[in-house]
Specification:
five-stranded antiparallel sheet, mainly beta, single chain
């Protein structure tokens, strides 16, 4: 079975959901996020990001490291650590660090 994505980016340049990254914030602190339009904003404490947001990188509250999430769903634990970061980056907008 093959799966093909036939729809390209929407007119505003963002990928449509479900290709957007998503943040589930169980932390008591807001989580800083970055999108591919070089915009920073926050996902509030105890909240989830909207399906319409194109989140690409998320800053871990406990360590300040940046996680590149692509189209993944990232969970922020109550202690400010990430539960399932696919890969870390040196900064927002940067590629993954490979060790």
């Amino acid at each position: 079975m093959a799966f093909f994505i036939l729809k390209e980016k929407e007119h505003d340049g963002h990928w449509p959901w479900p290709l957007n990254g998503r943040v589930i914030n169980h932390s008591p602190k807001p989580v800083k996020v970055w999108d591919d339009n070089s915009q920073f904003y926050f996902v509030a404490a105890g909240q989830n990001s909207s399906n319409s947001l194109d989140i690409d990188h998320v800053q871990e509250p406990s360590s300040q490291r940046w996680c590149k999430i692509d189209a993944h769903r990232l969970v922020v634990n109550s202690n400010g650590t990430f539960d399932n970061c696919p890969c870390y980056a040196l900064a927002a907008g940067r590629p993954c660090i490979k060790f």
